[in-house]
Amino acid sequence: MTVAGLDIGSRTIGLVVVNDGEIVFREVVDTTFDPLEQCRRLLAQRDFDVLVATGYGRHLAQANFADQVITEIKAFALGCSHVFPQCRTILDIGGQDTKAISLGEGGKVADFQMNDRCAAGTGKFLEVMAAAMGLLPEEMGRLALQAEGEVKISSMCTVFAESEVTGLIARGTPRPLIARGLHEAICDRASALLRRVGVRREVVFAGGVAHNPCMRVLLEERLGLQLLVPENPQLVGALGAALSVLSRDDVRA
């Protein structure tokens, strides 16, 4: 059986197609202002027997072309525990939410916490702050690693934090220090979320922000352990969606 897993997030859409135990296709595209059209383009000329959707847009997909839907929590648990069978804790920082998930035996979800009330501490927050400093998000991550010290960012509200950053720039504060302070503030929020579910080895860092080198370094320092990062951290949810209708032993990462 050929299964397609589709993860429709706020910032990106991921597709993983599994056929005869092998991942035969994987791709990530921007969600844009028309996620339905982006999904149709991703799925065009892809052959599959079952399509399982997850993410913010899963119900949109179900109303149009998906056969089944599963929650993001279950999808990430399945995807992460397949790639890293030893995984017991998951941190997913995506475009507009952060998830901390604790896994029990067999990769089953034991507990989870989400920060989805606002974009504070997420990929969108980083994008807005990078734009305020005239940088791309990936540039800001590299710049933050160069800082020897930091400045304290007092607000994590995206609007107020942007104003605070603008003020710091106007006062001549070096951009590396501002960038480091922003990353430290996000790390504080992520660490607090993880502590609510309990941090147990091994910890997998997934989602688009897992590409950010500074976040990885700071989280590892804060947690006192090395994070496991998937080769394609934005495709873990899509993989988990596909795995939800297959035996985990039938798919090779």
Briefly summarize what is shown.
With 253 residues, the protein is α/β, with parallel strands linked by helices.
Write the layout of secondary structure elements.
Layout: E1 2-8, E2 12-19, E3 22-30, H1 35-43, E4 50-54, H2 58-64, E5 68-69, H3 72-83, E6 89-93, E7 98-103, E8 109-115, H4 123-132, H5 137-145, H6 158-170, H7 175-197, E9 203-206, H8 213-223, H9 236-243
Parallel strand pairs: 1-4, 4-5, 6-9
Antiparallel strand pairs: 1-2, 2-3, 6-7, 7-8
Helix pairs in contact: 3-9, 4-6, 5-7, 7-8
What does this molecule look like?
- This protein is of the alpha/beta class and 253 residues long.
- It has two domains: 1-84 and 232-253, ATPase, nucleotide binding domain (Nucleotidyltransferase, domain 5), CATH 3.30.420; 86-229, 2-Layer Sandwich (Nucleotidyltransferase, domain 5).
- It has helices spanning 35-43, 58-64, 72-83, 123-132, 137-145, 158-170, 175-197, 213-223, 236-243, and strands at 2-8, 12-19, 22-30, 50-54, 68-69, 89-93, 98-103, 109-115, 203-206.
- A five-stranded mixed sheet has the order 3-2-1-4-5.
- Helix 3 crosses helix 9, helix 4 (123-132) runs parallel beside helix 6 (158-170) and helix 7 (175-197) packs across helix 8.
- It is globular and about 60 Å long.
- The chain starts with a strand and ends in a 10-residue tail after the last helix.
- The mean pLDDT is 92.
